[in-house]
Design goal:
The protein is mainly alpha-helical. Helix content is 64%, strand content 6%.
Length: 181
């Protein structure tokens, strides 16, 4: 047995199978929804492929280069939008069919965890994880940047301003707490 909790859990639930006979993915007892993940990866890939085909037909020219400030802007926007989608109370309606509320996070963020099995669980894993959702947001922003760079920069600037605002809120709260102690 290993001391790694992920592997320890897998060993604790080992059912005697050799890992081949009827086991899907990592083993029969593993709840990892690999088929759901594959479906989501296919949807993501199909979306990028569709965008590429439509953009090519419409004559959209890709930029020769992407300036570092645009990468930073898109990165900041990706960060913020993934937080909005996975942690905001207001976007709970998007997550609710696939997650359950587990608690309150910092700064009025909420914490959700995936529920269900199969595709429902895979979508729950996606919409409960800002890191996972960030890849999808990045895909949308990069497609937007290719097709409508000015509009995408403007939307990204708005999300960037929201990120700066969040940091200022944290700084203000920290300052208040520091002076009150």
């Amino acid at each position: 047995m290993t001391t790694d909790p992920v592997h320890e859990d897998a060993h604790a639930h080992h059912d005697g199978h050799d890992g081949h006979e009827g086991d899907e993915g990592y083993g029969a007892a593993d709840a990892t929804p690999l088929v759901g993940y594959a479906l989501l990866a296919g949807v993501f890939t199909a979306g990028i492929g569709t965008f590429t085909a439509v953009a090519r037909r419409r004559g959209v020219r890709l930029p020769d280069r992407v300036p570092p400030w645009d990468v930073a802007l898109l990165g900041t926007a990706t960060y913020k939008m993934s937080r909005v989608l996975t942690r905001d109370k207001i976007t709970s309606f998007v997550r609710a069919p696939f997650t359950r509320r587990t608690g309150q996070g910092e700064a009025a963020e909420v914490m959700d965890e995936p529920r269900g099995t199969g595709v429902r669980r895979a979508v729950g894993d996606l919409v409960a994880c800002p890191f996972c959702t960030a890849a999808w947001v990045m895909g949308a922003l990069v497609c937007g940047y290719a097709a409508a760079p000015r509009a995408t920069r403007l939307a990204s600037a708005g999300l960037g301003a929201l990120t700066v605002s969040d940091f200022l809120h944290y700084a203000w709260t920290w300052t208040q707490q520091t002076t009150e102690s």
